[in-house]
Design brief:
The chain is an alpha+beta fold. The protein has helices spanning about 1-55, 65-80, 90-150, 190-205, 225-240; strands at about 150-160, 170-175, 180, 210-215, 245-250, 265-270, 275-280. Among the domains are: about 100-205, Rossmann fold, CATH 3.40.50; about 210-284, P-loop containing nucleotide triphosphate hydrolases (Rossmann fold, 3-Layer(aba) Sandwich). Helix 3 packs across helix 4 (about 190-205). The protein is rod-shaped.
Length: about 280
């Protein structure tokens, strides 16, 4: 019996050994197949890696492949909703993109032209402001001197020079010891406004380029004293500027003494018709 037991154990051992060898052979074949597939997968991976580097640089990400795959599925789902888009949509997009670039270039050119125009405008404004300030600086003393001859005081000043659209000139005048105020329709009488206006115009005469100057009924609201003073100043200016001819129209009586180089033409209504006559200076 013991022999039979040992024999049976021996047989079982040999059977198990044979089975183990068979299993090992199968596993070795399977391992070789897996190794072959691994080599092929690595080779394909290297080829894909090279192609990916040629197409786009490697994207660094902390996401797992599973997360990337899920996002790709989501994007593919979104793209599936765009299946009805025309085939030439890419060409249309490129045309619009090119149009946008052209508009951007034009906008840049327009912006540059605007910048240059603003610089030129600023330069011209500086010249304009400088010339006006220089002119007022010269005219103001003359204006004050003329006012002094008729018992007045005043000044000329520029206002709002920072903005050319709002810039202006203010004429200040005061009579009979009053503080000079801006010339307007309410602060001075009609005669005072006429005197101040004529004083300003006479102060400007040296800076006007015109061979003929005309003034109409400037003395209507003046009193006799101011009328005579202003007329004498006009005559004085004509004597100082022989190349300038003044035409003065007045309904008032002339009250001046120096009539040299002055031609007086009288227009008078006689019996319903106008008659014209020339007054000549008497010679001694």
């Amino acid at each position: 019996r013991e022999v039979d037991t040992y024999f049976n154990q021996y047989v079982d051992t040999k059977v198990q050994e044979a089975i183990s060898r068979f299993r090992r052979s199968l596993m070795e074949k399977e391992l070789k197949e897996l190794q072959r597939k691994l080599r092929e997968a690595r080779r394909e991976l290297e080829e894909l890696y090279i192609k990916a580097e040629e197409a786009q640089p490697k994207v660094e990400t902390k996401r797992t492949p599973t997360e990337v795959q899920e996002e790709l599925r989501f994007i593919n789902l979104q793209l599936s909703t765009l299946a009805d888009i025309p085939d030439d949509v890419e060409a249309i997009y490129k045309r619009y993109e090119q149009s946008l670039k052209e508009l951007e270039e034009r906008a840049q050119i327009a912006a540059e032209n605007k910048r240059r125009a603003l610089q030129e405008l600023e330069s011209r404004i500086k010249v304009w402001r400088s010339r006006l300030e220089e002119l007022v600086e010269k005219v103001n003393p003359v204006y004050q001197h003329i006012l002094e001859r008729v018992g007045g005081i005043g000044a000329i000043r520029l206002v709002n020079m920072e903005d050319p659209e709002k810039a202006g000139l203010e004429i200040l005048v005061g009579f009979r010891g009053n503080i000079p105020v801006v010339l307007d329709a309410y602060s001075q009488s009609g005669g005072e406004r006429s005197v101040a206006t004529m004083a300003f115009l006479l102060a400007l005469q040296h800076y006007l380029k015109s061979p003929i100057r005309a003034v109409d009924e400037f003395d209507v609201h003046m009193d006799p004293s101011n009328r005579e003073a202003m007329m004498n100043m006009v005559l004085s200016f004509t004597k100082e500027n022989k190349d300038v001819q003044f035409i003065v129209i007045t309904p008032s009586q002339l009250a001046v003494k120096e009539m040299q180089d002055v031609n007086i033409i009288l227009v008078q209504n006689v019996r319903g018709s106008s008659e014209v006559a020339t007054v000549e200076e008497e010679t001694a």
